[in-house]
Every structure is written in C-alpha cells, then in structure tokens.
Specification:
439 residues; alpha/beta; Alpha-Beta Plaits; four-stranded parallel β-sheet; four-stranded mixed β-sheet; binds iron/sulfur cluster
C-alpha cells in the first residue's frame, strides 16, 4: 500500500494506463483532489485495501504539476511492430485528436490538423491510417437501433452510452446494479478494430494476427479497454496498441520530424469516410446528438430537421445538460454529463428523475479533455476551443448523419446485414462484468 495515500492517489504497478515516477512526486495532493472531486473515485473505496480502485481516466496525470504521473508509454511496442517486416501497422485515429495534436508543436488549441497528422503517422511508419469517425458512425447505427428497441420494449432504460471505457468501468465498479443499462455497443475504436481484424484482413489477404491495430487517442483508459478479455478473439486482441496524443507528439520530436512543415495527406480510403456526427463524438454531448440524428431517421424515415443537426441544448461547456424531443409519439428525455463525480449525483437520484438515455464521458468536456491530450494550464479555455474545432468541422461536412455514410451502408450490405443482426452482435457488441471493491 502507498504510504502517502492520505495525500495522493495510489497507483498499482500493473495499471495499464498510468504510472508514477517516485523521484518527481512533490506530494502536492492535486492528483487525489481531481480523483475525488471530479472523478468520484478516491475516497469512495477503502484505502487500506490491496486492490486499488482506478477507472484509468488519466485526469491525475493531466493535473500533476511536475509530470510525476504520466501515461504508460507504448511507443517502444509501436516501433517494434513498425520494424517487424511480417506485420502491417494500421493506425486508427480518434475524432478529437485532430484538434489537439497541433498543440504538441505550439499550434493553437482547436486547430484542425488531420492532414498533417496522417502525414506524420505515415512518416513514423504506418502502412494504413484510418479515421475512427467511421467507427463512431458504426457505433451510432448500432446504438440508435438498440435505443429504439429498448424504448419499444420499455426495457433497461435509461440507456447509458458505452463509448467511454472509464465510465463503463465506473458503472461496473460502483453502480453494478445498472450494468444492464449500459449500451452493449463496443466503443468506436473497439468496433473499428474488430472490423479491420475480421473483414479488412480478408480483403488484403493477411492473417488477423499480422495486422497490428494502433489506436491514436486522447485517452489513456483505452489502454485498459484494449486489455479487456471480452474484446479478445482467436487471434488475440482487437486493438493491439494504444498511444495517446502526448506519446505521438513526443515520438515525433524524438524522431526529429518537423510537424509544421509536413504536407497534408488524406486518410486511406477503405474505412475512413465519416459523417459530421462521427466527428462531434469527441465533445461532450456529441454522442447524444449523433444518436438523435440517426434515431430520428430510423423512426421517421426522414432526414433530421436543422434544429436537430445543431442541437444547441446538448452543446456547451456544462457538466450536466438536459433536453427532450418527441419520437414515436413519446417525449424522450436526454441527459448529457461529463465527470464521473457529476454522474454519481445523477445516478443516486435516478429512481426519482426519469431519463430515457444518458451520455456520460469521464473527462472535462468529453474526449477533448482526455487524459492523454496535450497538457495545458488553461484547461477550461482549451477544451472549449477543441470542441469548437469539431463543431466547425461538422458544419463543413456534407454527410451529417451516420446513416448517410456510404461506406457504412456498404459494410452492412456486404458483411453485417443490418444493425443488431447476429453478425453485428458478434463483432460490434460486448458484455460487462461486476467489479467488486471494498467500501
Ligand atoms: S499530483 Fe503529482 S506531484 Fe502531486 S502528489 Fe500527485 S503524483 Fe505527486
Ligand atoms: S486515472 Fe483517474 S481514477 Fe485512476 S487514479 Fe487517476 S484520476 Fe483517479
Ligand atoms: S472521456 Fe474520452 S478521453 Fe476521457 S476516458 Fe472517456 S473515452 Fe477516454
């Protein structure tokens, strides 16, 4: 047990997401503060227990003033995969990293650098670079369909979103009575990795085990998610390596790549077409807005109206946002939360307050404030600018909703058949487990 656990968060030696350099720690207590007050984790389990409770969000690393806590570095594993001639390395990049990677090279927060990012990853050694907005669209097709089923059957409501692995682990640990409320959808990275291993590998005629999927994310909880046994198959893990924006930024500097001079390159085409809905996934409220766009279409067979394509009540830097809309002749109540401490306050009153669907992202303003994002002293301002960068991009896109994405339509036609089909359930959904802890 950590002898300083009265002051700081204890970190287990096998934590897949974060680690601490003891020589740097100045015992300031900021890590414990954020873990308790924003994440609702420290202080909610018994500190003399041997099993340390952590939801892997990485917010303690973001606030540590001396970089004593950092992400677990996966760049050695990445370089050894790149240097192995028998492997093909496929990068998949999360929606929010394109508006934050530039900060690692002194560019302003929110600047859209997708083209330079693809170019950088190719220089590092990627064989393919795909965009996770595709996986986000796939998630929405499944999650919106699942939501409509639950509404029709009045079962397991409110539905909780499941794309944030820190939130999923939070429910599994502290609110296991609500596990059935979690959507069974894998996260966008989980879905895209599975499609690449099980479908794309056949197209390019390679063994799934020789395809190394590297997720570049804002998130250190994804390092934990990639290890989940529920996401393993006969070939091993679906997502092999997870690297944060910080790790890629530092690696580029180590390799002496001049980011600002890189020419824009396009994502590889096969699994990169994404909609605006997939892009806004990176901001708090974005997943909900994306679900609403596609659920509206599935129910009415009409494109969503303008006010649903800019659902103002679901946007903005507020830790709890609520809204409602009428679907299937019913008033559907929506709730969007960031910060798992704030989620506690909603979950504790869930019996009295009726919602139909709840989005929770662990980090401030969602993934734009993720535990693997570039560190900043003016966090509030920065996460607002990053989110705005995503909404601006959505504005510019012709394809606004996941159901309109032609590559998604193709994948269902050629492989998955329909949302919630047996194949879709096999490759795109998952299960969860109770994680007992000592109070
Ligand atoms: S925030 Fe960093 S320096 Fe402060 S107690 Fe925690 S690990 Fe130590
Ligand atoms: S990763 Fe999150 S849950 Fe784990 S110690 Fe840090 S702040 Fe707490
Ligand atoms: S909010 Fe995003 S970055 Fe933060 S833990 Fe969840 S998925 Fe990861």
């Amino acid at each position: 047990m950590d002898k300083y656990s009265e002051i700081r968060v204890p970190i287990s030696h096998d934590n897949p997401s974060i680690r601490r350099n003891e020589r740097k720690c100045v015992l300031c207590g900021k890590c414990k503060d954020v873990c308790k007050k924003k994440m609702g984790v420290a202080g909610f389990w018994k500190y003399d227990s041997e099993d340390i409770v952590c939801i892997n969000c990485g917010q303690c690393a973001n606030v540590c003033p001396v970089d004593a806590i950092t992400e677990q570095d996966s760049t050695d594993a990445l370089m050894s995969a790149i240097n192995n001639p028998n492997k093909k390395v496929v990068f998949i990049t999360s929606p929010s990293v394109r508006v934050s990677l530039g900060e690692m090279f002194n560019m302003p927060a929110g600047e859209f650098v997708a083209g330079k990012m693809v170019s950088l990853l190719k220089k590092i050694g990627a064989d393919y670079v795909f965009d996770v907005t595709f996986g986000a669209d796939l998630t929405i097709m499944e999650e919106a369909s699942e939501f409509i089923e639950r509404i029709k059957n009045e079962k397991n409501l409110p539905q909780f979103t499941s794309c944030c692995p820190a939130w999923v682990k939070f429910v599994e640990t502290f609110y296991s009575q609500y596990i059935q409320n979690l959507s069974s959808c894998r996260s966008p990275i989980g879905m895209q990795s599975s499609i690449l291993k099980n479908y794309f590998s056949k197209i390019i005629n390679i063994e799934p085990s020789d395809l190394v999927i590297v997720a570049m994310t804002p998130c250190v909880a994804k390092k934990f998610e990639a290890e989940r046994e529920e996401l393993r198959s006969f070939y091993g893990k679906d997502t092999n390596i997870v690297v944060s924006v910080r790790e890629i930024g530092k690696l580029a500097k180590r390799l002496k790549i001049n980011f600002s001079k890189l020419k824009d390159e396009q994502f590889d085409t096969a699994f990169s077409t994404g909609s605006g809905a997939g892009v806004i996934f990176g901001a708090s409220g974005g997943v909900m807005e994306a679900v609403v766009r596609t659920a509206y279409y599935f129910i009415t067979k009409e494109n969503p109206p303008k006010d649903l394509l800019q659902f103002k009540k679901l946007r903005g830097y507020k830790d709890v946002k609520t809204a409602s809309l009428t679907l299937m002749g019913k008033e559907i109540k929506l709730c969007v939360i960031f910060g798992t401490m704030q989620a506690r306050t909603i979950l504790d009153k869930l019996k009295n307050k009726k919602y139909d669907i709840i989005e929770v992202m662990a980090c401030p303003n969602g993934c734009v404030g993720g535990g693997g994002q570039p560190k900043s002293n003016s966090t509030d301002d920065v996460v607002v600018k990053r989110a705005q960068g995503l909404y601006d991009q959505d504005e510019k896109m012709d394809i606004k909703s996941s159901f309109e994405n032609p590559t998604i339509q193709f994948l269902y036609k050629e492989f998955l058949t329909t949302p919630l089909s047996e194949k879709a359930k096999q490759y795109l959904h998952t299960t969860y487990k109770n994680r007992p802890y000592r109070k």
